[in-house]
Write a structure and sequence with these properties.
By secondary structure, the protein is of the alpha/beta class. The protein has 11 helices and 16 strands. Strand 9 and strand 10 form a beta hairpin. The structure holds alpha-D-glucopyranose (GLC).
Length: about 425
């Protein structure tokens, strides 16, 4: 076949398969922010919206089939008098988190920022009248912590949003909605978010799964992704669709499970080569839930962070701020405890990659060049075998205090010989590899 005919046929085949002949090429800035994201390891998720007032989580509107016009009346009473962005950011920064992901608009459809494209927003529809996102963004930039924005593809309030499997009982008149109008609305809002709030580290989409019973549904993501990358090339795109990443995405998200695990049933997808992030709740709910005081202990949270790092993933830990604008007291104390731990052990987490010894029931390893950090989380023994195979260990020492650790070599690896059974939250041993 002559070359021209071959090229023409391949192009035709590409179009026929719906593929774009030119695949997504991330810019230099984008690749740089992927690295920074990978190094950051720890972020705090904030789910805040009108649902905080109902205090039963962010799904109440659809779970209880609340009428969209009645639900909207919550806005008239939303006055989070104690909201203080400087305090939030300071507490989060002190936890050691390197970024904040804030819900700009969740499935309920209320915009927590000042938008021109709908009155149903925190400035125009509430007596509070303050653009909380602007205040948060300014503080993040001032205090030097990155801001990511959650943006839902679902909207249980808007009449033009096409119905998916949720939000069917909120009283909106037309299941078909008006896709063109809704798509334009989302892109207008994304343009505002990426124009009026300074550098945004990532856009974190959610809700594609709402159309999973309608497989032909086209969310027109390529156009939306291109818009975001055009407005802010360094802005990372992540999508919590519970699938292997789509073209145009810069990070891969897992919900309530570490990559490769699937206890919650949302994470059967393959692990890609993109930077990874796993999100988890500090209690059991994303939005504020008054009856859920079941906060995970500091030890559990630290173990989760360390295990994520061992799997080369970031941890995005969620807090649901209260309707009065404060972060729950227990959450604040957990943030402080994590911060204290990270002050000592941060070097073994930030900027590392999953180590050359895979995760085991006793713990995980993280690595920076030839420094291997062995994180012992649960070991009822004084000896620990590491399957290092041909890798040579030059030196082994306790990370804290730098006391040498004895070890024995054999063909399959080395056995660390500890003085006592480890009891710390995380006993870290540092190895120097050859
Ligand atoms: C789920 C939920 C949503 C939450 C998100 C966070 O997709 O629908 O309420 O915001 O997970 O991961």
């Amino acid at each position: 076949m002559n070359r021209r005919v071959y090229v023409l046929l391949s192009l035709l085949l590409c179009f026929a398969m719906g593929a774009h002949p030119q695949s997504y090429q991330p810019t230099e800035e984008n690749l740089k922010s992927r690295q920074e994201f990978r190094d950051a390891k720890f972020g705090i998720f904030l789910h805040w919206g009108l649902y905080a007032m109902l205090a039963t989580g962010e799904w109440t509107m659809t779970n209880n089939n609340l009428n969209y016009k009645e639900y909207a009346k919550l806005a008239g009473g939303f006055y989070p008098s104690k909201f203080d962005a400087a305090k939030w950011v300071a507490a989060i920064k002190a936890s050691g988190a390197k970024y904040i992901c804030f819900t700009s608009r969740h499935h309920e459809g209320f915009s927590m920022f000042h938008t021109k494209y709908s009155d149903y927003n925190i400035v125009d529809a509430t007596p509070f009248k303050r653009d909380v996102l602007k205040e948060l963004a300014d503080e993040c930039h001032k205090q030097g912590i990155r801001l990511h924005l959650y943006y839902s593809h679902i909207d249980w309030f808007r009449e033009d949003a096409v119905w998916g499997r949720t939000g069917r009982g909120t009283g909106r008149p037309n299941p078909k909605g008006n896709w063109d109008s809704y798509y334009q609305f989302m892109n207008n809002q994304l343009t505002e978010l990426l124009t009026n709030y300074g550098p945004i580290g990532a856009i974190w989409f959610d809700g594609v799964w709402d159309q999973d019973r309608n497989p032909g549904f086209d969310w027109q993501l390529p156009g939306q992704y291109a818009l975001i990358h055009r407005l802010q090339p360094a802005c990372l795109i992540g999508n919590n669709h519970h699938l292997t990443p789509f073209e145009g995405e810069d990070i891969q998200i897992f919900e309530r499970d570490l990559p490769g695990e699937n206890k919650a049933g949302l994470s059967g997808q393959n692990i890609s080569t993109l930077p990874l992030e796993t999100c988890e709740t500090m209690n059991g709910m994303w939005g504020y839930k008054i009856t859920d005081q079941n906060y995970k202990s500091a030890k559990t949270l630290i173990h989760y962070l360390v295990k994520a790092a061992g799997k080369d993933a970031n941890l995005l830990m969620n807090i649901g701020p209260q309707p009065d604008g404060e972060l729950p007291e227990v959450a604040l104390s957990r943030l402080a405890e994590m911060g204290k731990w990270l002050q000592t052990y941060g070097e073994t987490i930030y900027g590392t990659r999953g180590g050359c010894v895979a995760p085991h029931p006793w713990g995980v390893t993280t690595q920076k060049g030839d420094r291997l950090f062995v994180h012992i989380l649960d070991l009822q023994d004084k000896a620990l075998f590491l399957p290092l195979e041909s890798k040579k260990v030059k030196k082994a020492q306790m990370f804290i205090g730098k006391e040498p650790v004895k070890f024995q070599k054999n063909k399959a690896g080395v056995t660390l010989l500890l003085n006592e059974v480890p009891t710390d939250i995380d006993t870290v041993i540092e190895l120097e590899l050859d």
